[in-house]
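ok so i was messing around last nite and threw this chain in just to see what happens. nothing serious, just curious
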Amino acid sequence: MRTTRPTTRTLRTACVTVAAALLATGCGRSDDSAAADAPAKISGGKAKGKLVMWSMGDKADKDLQSLAKKFEQQNPGVTVQITAVPWDAAHEKLTTAIAGGNTPDLSLIGSTWMAEMAAMKGFQATPASFKASAFFPGQWDTTKYKNASYGVPFIADTSVIYYRTDITAKAGIKGAPADDWAGYLKDLKAVQATVGKQNPKLRHATQLQTGFNSWLFWLPLVWQQGGDIYDSGTKKFTFDSPAVAKALEYYSGIFKDGLSPNDKTDSGQNFQNGLIGTVQQGASTSGNLHLNAPALDSTWQTMPLPRGEQAAGLAGGSDLAVFKDAKNPDAAWKFVQFLTAPENLATYADATGNLPAVARSWSEGKLSGNPKMAAFETQLKVTKAPPSITTWQQIADTIDSELEKLAYGKSTLAETQKTLQSKAAGIGTGR
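result:
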């Protein structure tokens, strides 16, 4: 699953350091609360002038370019220039541009960067003409900072359970595994019992993420228990809550019972090779499986994440944001309107395999006819965004580190919970 493009921990730490330095020095930005900003306004009529957009990726997004050409045809007075920015360099390039007042008009922004860059007063507040109800709720929340929206969701991302029907069937499971925590764990144990017997190649029933980005898969467990790790009302972390304790117990128990390896091997490849029976991953895994192992198309399926007290998942992906220092903000917002129109976003999703953040786009394109994608639509309806605090990346890194210790048996449940609360409180929430 992707929130922002995965990079090395070293690079991310460096990016956080750069951002912290920029915030500390001000770099042309005031310390006033970004929440006081009034929403931008979009004029009537056609878009005009030159519009510059940054799109994250190692090469030009031909499908985005195709939509830009269509936008130019509908708005003869505008020219759209889209520049590819590698994900590995994007964070530093964006924060440097914001601090120096030298931004493009518009950019794709990793959802976990939104609060940090909004706090730098980098973005215009979202015009009122964009309605939250058009988007999956969790996706809309990724654009928020201090209860105001500073962008528009574009590409959604969340994770579901992939399962090998050829493997689960030999464990006596008819159809999908159970959709609740207790039942799902029971089914995992049934699959594990077939290792080397009914399923000769199988090594583990599933594979949980350890270390880098494991927070993506663990945080929904807290929400599924009806809890959270942060109280926005009191502005305090709640890692010391019963819901967190249950989520840690569930996560660690899968390793303790030998249902998952903790060796950090490629879970997608292990699933493809039949070494594991289930895995929790995002939509890109579907494309990879179809591309690399088309013969397996009939032997894998997807299901929403098992529910605890309630259903919940993580909202990730990328948003579109117009910069405070945009030279052509009116055309930029009109392009955002165009890109997030249900039919246009459906076209983009069909071409790229990305998940659209607009709910109606699912019925406009091919997604509604793909049974393997149905679990993603169901999951997106109950996703939540991580806390919209400027220190989130540091908190996420801390969660990754402590979960890794727990998975390796180097820390107890109580120690992990206490350390998470202590370290999070020490990091704080930033601006």
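not much to say yet. The longest helix spans residues 9-25.
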